[in-house]
Amino acid sequence: MITYITPAGSMVGSPGQPVDASATLTTGNGTITVTLTNLETNTKDVGQNLSDLFFTVANGSLSGASYAPGTVDSAQLVSVDKNGKATLGANDTTASSIGWVLSIVNGTELELNDLSGTGHAGPAHTIIGPANGSGVYLNANSSIDNNKPHNPFIDQTATWVIDAPNVSTNTRIDSVTFCRGQRYRDCSARTQLLWHHCARFGRSSGRSPAAAQNHFCIG
What pTM was estimated for this model as a whole? Predict the structure, then answer.
């Protein structure tokens, strides 16, 4: 298992908005479990939400990877009304209902994408951080409050199980790229975005070597 975490004080956009996220990936014999969490409290703008995740492996192959069938995934939906009040909805337990599309970028890289691909849920189902202790997003603007295209969101955390026949417990996750926000950015242009708009982070835990890289993309 390896967890990638954005460093304290991370910001995106202009003017800068605070962001805080983690991605935990666990490799097994023929499986990868991905848990993606938005840790940023009392979100102001949908641009602070998580919308995509890329990750690569240093050994083994991701060829033939697909979402595991059945009710093995998890994402609690939440809607935010015009006053910023959060109301929990369905707990989605299948990859198709969560609506993040899995794509094989190449033999060593996968993408989970809410914004494009057949069956994607976006612009809804981006991952929003926790509300305040009263269940209200006091700072939320019109991109969140009662925004029909963007609601419902995924409440804080989503977990997927991926069938990956060429992966084992010895497969090492090499890098992770978080993508943010509902600004209709096409993450297929990620190579350019990485060059121009991403900060590289090296803080991680688990069995990965210290040299593992974590990229955080902005919209």
Answer: 0.85
